[in-house]
Amino acid sequence: MKTLATAAAAALMLTGGAFAEEVVTGAAKVVDADIVMVDKQRVILWAVDAPERTQKCHVGELLWDCYGAARQALEELIASGEASCTLKDGKPDQFNRRFGTCTSAGKDIGAELVRLGMARAYVEQGEDYVAEENEAKAAQLGVFQPGAQVDDPWAWRKRDPRNYR
Fold first, then answer.
1. What's phi and psi for 45, nearest 5 deg?
2. Domains of the chain with bracketed CATH
3. Of 155, 154, 158, 151, residue with least CA distance to 49
């Protein structure tokens, strides 16, 4: 029995605690262009960074509501009203948000948002969605459409701390 307990503890250490991942599932609604609320938990999409609410974007000379477009795309991705999010380790931030990867209707929400060009792959967190971003660039979608002048969301926030995500 002692050997079994020791083996289980060793397996847990080797997997980095993978057995303890937390999943929230339930009714989903959009909070921001890259944040959803699932079962009373605010979840920031992991490795995804969408335009900020105050961000100014242009297509050619015309002002483009890139934030509104990204938020609408996210609304459509969770149109079923249900989502499941695997939360990353860590405690909630001061706004009770956690990072996580979410699915709805069998699709990875972050991957789809990036593939549509409505968000960037946030490589500071991981390279999870670089391939999807390359697809959006090749197809010239969303923030990569011809004539689009869109600052990277992380650069937008850095210039003015009030643009905090």
1. -60, 125
2. 20-149 (2.40.50.90)
3. 154
Report the predicted TM-score, pTM, of the whole model to 2 decimal places: 0.84
Name the token pair of 157: 């926030």
In whole angstroms, what separates CA 68 from the centre of its chain? Answer: 16
Going by DSSP bridges, is the β-strand pair 41-45/97-104 parallel, antiparallel, or unpaired? parallel
CA distance 77 to 86: 17
d(CA 87, CA 44): 9
Q: Which residues of the chain have pLDDT under 70?
A: 1-20, 161-165
Tally Cβ neighbours within 10 Å of residue 145: 15
Paired tokens of 10: 């060793």
